[in-house]
Amino acid sequence: MSRARLLLLVATLGANACHAADGAMSHSCPDRVHVASGTLAPADIPDGWKANFQDSQIWLTGNSVFEGPPEKGGAQMPTSTRGTTATWKFAAPAEEGYWLSCDYANGLIHLAVRADAKATSCTATFTKSGQPRVPHSEFTCR
Predict the structure, then answer these.
(1) pLDDT tens across 108-138, in order?
(2) Which of 13, 54, 67, 133 allows an S-S link to 113, with CB 3.0 to 4.6 Å?
(3) 17-34 pLDDT, tens digit each
């Protein structure tokens, strides 16, 4: 059976941004997103089969940083990780900027926002708290 592919949509998180007193810029990821519809590649659906999408909430599963918009596939490896924190250091400005991504359904869906062009590093934390354990992620760029 062929695998169906959900097309990825990129949205901005600008409404969740705030400036810290030290000039750092922070972005908080929504804990979940509501998926109302999707698109499958018709070639991946066998004859006689029908695709169906349920209105559903998709939970945050991680975060990542991209050089250029996420749809271009420029995922960057963190410079360092420690526990639930990852840091990316940028050696030079990127032509299309660095993008901060809140990842849902293990990276199937990305909500992304362009980091400030002056940022030389970004740190992301990913935690789960409460009952039930709800995921939380926040980026801070300097």
Answers:
(1) 899 999 999 999 999 999 999 998 899 999 9
(2) 13
(3) 555 546 789 999 999 999
Q: Are 112 and 10 in contact (CB under 8 A)?
A: yes
- Three-state SS for 141? strand
Residue 137, CA distances (Å) to 39, 41, 123, 124 in order: 27, 31, 10, 7
Q: What does the pLDDT average to over 23-52?
A: 89
Q: With beta carbons less than 8 A apart as the criterion, state whether 64 and 34 touch.
A: no
Q: Which two tokens stand for residue 50?
A: 């029908």
- Residues recorded for the chain: 142
116 touches 105 (CB < 8 A): no
pLDDT of residue 16: 52
- Assess contact for 113 and 86: CB atoms under 8 A: no
Nearest to 142 by CA among 97, 96, 69, 88: 88
